[in-house]
């Protein structure tokens, strides 16, 4: 299951970009996940939750933004979405298509809880 190593990679990225004193303030890690990324979303979420359990990141969760597969036809310049099984252009029926989006696996944002300042 490569989702475990991907979840660990996401956590490593968080640890590299968030100061240690703010680690417990991490609430949401936003990740773009393309349809053709080869990642099983439920497995990635499960592995992430298992890795953060009992750590300073235990309150953090993944928010997966699922990116559809979008293709472009070189013959007629039509852009279209596909379910991943059909790569043929629906307009001209050409097969000269290329992937525009849908292969992403990228951490987009790390959301921290705002600190509440006590009035003195």
Provide a descriptive summary of the structure in words.
The protein contains two helices and six strands. It has 120 residues and is an alpha+beta fold. The strands form two sheets. It has a three-stranded mixed sheet with strand order 2-1-6, covered by helices on one side. A three-stranded antiparallel sheet has the order 4-3-5, with no helix packed on it. Strand 1, helix 2 (41-52) and strand 2 (61-67) form a beta-alpha-beta unit. The mean pLDDT is 93.
Could you give a short description of this structure?
The protein has two helices and six strands; from the N terminus they run αβαβββββ. It is α+β, with helices and mostly antiparallel strands and 120 residues long. α1 (2-17) packs across α2 (41-52).
Keywords, separated by commas or semicolons:
single chain; 120 residues; alpha+beta; hypothetical protein PF0899 fold; three-stranded mixed sheet; three-stranded antiparallel sheet; 2 helices; 6 strands; 32% strand
């Amino acid at each position: 299951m490569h989702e475990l190593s991907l979840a660990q990679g996401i956590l490593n990225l968080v640890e590299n970009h968030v100061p240690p004193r703010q680690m417990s303030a991490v609430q949401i890690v936003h990740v773009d996940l393309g349809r053709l990324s080869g990642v099983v979303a439920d497995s990635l979420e499960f592995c992430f939750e298992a890795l953060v359990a009992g750590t300073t990141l235990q309150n953090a969760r993944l928010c997966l933004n699922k990116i559809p597969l979008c293709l472009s036809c070189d013959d007629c310049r039509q852009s279209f979405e596909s379910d991943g099984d059909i790569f043929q252009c629906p307009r001209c029926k050409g097969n000269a298509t290329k992937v525009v989006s849908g292969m992403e696996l990228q951490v987009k944002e790390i959301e921290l809880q705002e600190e509440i300042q006590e009035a003195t």
